[in-house]
Amino acid sequence: MVDFPGCNVDLAGVAYTMKSVYIIGSLRNEKIPQVGNTLRDHGWDAFDDWYGAGHEADDKWRDYENLRGRSHQEALYGFAAKHVFEFDKRHLDRCDLAVLVMPAGKSGHLELGYFVGSGKPGFILFDAVPERYDVMHQFANEVFYSVDEMLVKLENYR
Predict the structure, then answer these.
(1) What number of other Cβ atoms are within 10 A of residue 41's Cβ?
(2) pLDDT tens, 74-117?
(3) pTM of the entire predicted model
(4) Hey, where are the domains in the chain?
(5) Which CATH number does 19-52+94-157 carry?
(6) 61, 83 in Cβ contact below 8 A?
(7) 100 φ, ψ (degrees, to nearest 5)
(8) Per-residue CA distances from 97 to 23, 44, 93, 109, 121 (Å)
């Protein structure tokens, strides 16, 4: 039924737009595809394609750049890094909402900050109540502690 992400055609051939959710998280967080599948099952265009790079993608990129003798700063401006960055940024810019799935690292928090700073709604899905509280989580529109709670609250953003 889906022709392109965010653009759908029903059985009568009528096009309609589906809200897109960028799923932000860690390559090491095995819950990312589960959250993506759940959102898709509930009628959202969930973007989690970045997860396909595998849990070692960043480490392999670092190792490759080290073999080339390139510094971290040089690696950031190489073709591979620019390509991956532009891929992620394109989809961050395209999507209507973002959900940071915890636990996540620095990149995920930067992505959520960019997203919310762009004026779009961003959320945090915690896997548990955090051990260390952080007042900066208030930058998110809402925080959730279960997928079911997230699904209910996201309905307000359709």
Answers:
(1) 10
(2) 999 999 999 999 999 999 999 999 999 999 999 999 999 999 99
(3) 0.88
(4) 19-52+94-157
(5) 3.40.50.450
(6) no
(7) -85, 115
(8) 9, 10, 10, 15, 5
